[in-house]
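Notes from hallway chat w/ T.B., transcribed later so I don't forget. T.B. wanted the structure written out for a chain they're using in a teaching module, and asked if we could keep both sequence and structure tokens in one place. Agreed to drop them here.
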Amino acid sequence: MPLFKLRFPPSALAVARSMADLLAERATPPALAVTLFENGPGRFVVEAYYATPPCLADLARGAWSLATPMPSPVLEAVPDQDWVALSQAALPPVAAGRFLVHGRHDRERIRPQRMAIEIEAGAAFGTGHNATTTLCLEAIDRLVRRRCFRSVLDLGCGTGVLAIAAARAIPGAHVLAVDNDPLAVAVAHTNARLNGAGPRVRVMAATDFAHARLRRPRGFDLVLANLLPGPLIALAPAMRRGLGPRGIAVLCGLLDHQARELIATYRAAGFRLAARSRRAGWTVLTLERTADSRR
């Protein structure tokens, strides 16, 4: 499949955030992935990947609404045969709390340990190298040290890294990983088996909480949702119904300035903010479902 990369030169964080938002919200053509990462002190690079090349003129017209002028991007085709292999070879292991996420190329030099998770970079999202995934892994590590979770849902599981982490950290929990992308479901299933979590992690295709198997009488104890802000906002009422009393929702995939609206929406739906973590422009929210009497 052809792949095209749109790259913006380093800019201030506020400008980079605006560009990342603009690219994530554009529907034609939709971006396969949008990344924002630090490139030197106070400077951030935005990259977006597409199956078909976007029109730079349309993008420039869309940028007129931004408060700060947008720097000119560079669009290039990514070679089919080697971009994944090259990116994998360059990706170092990532430590997130007690977890260590690594690729196959590091398998031999990573000492066997209970919290090591092998995830290959590929078509499904979630290798641990994006700050939002790392923050979510750290949130899982903190939560399981304080509470016992019997049922865990990874909503929009991508590679399945969060579900595998939950299964590793909570040996007695039932873990369900779902995604509406059949490719992600296949990748997550393979990764669960590769990491010895196959019997503990059930992977299935589902959209949000619409599937009957996601409507549990007692609700889930913990829901991990690494999604875009729009779907997370729309999910707030269903998230409350899907969680049991004092259930926890970990929401990630948010840029810092998008967190305020998410917090307000979930408070109105019957949640309290339990924790908030930030890194490299990204935010992860940990919310607790409140009792009905407190709403």
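Follow-up for T.B.: The chain has nine helices and 14 strands. Might be a good example for the class.
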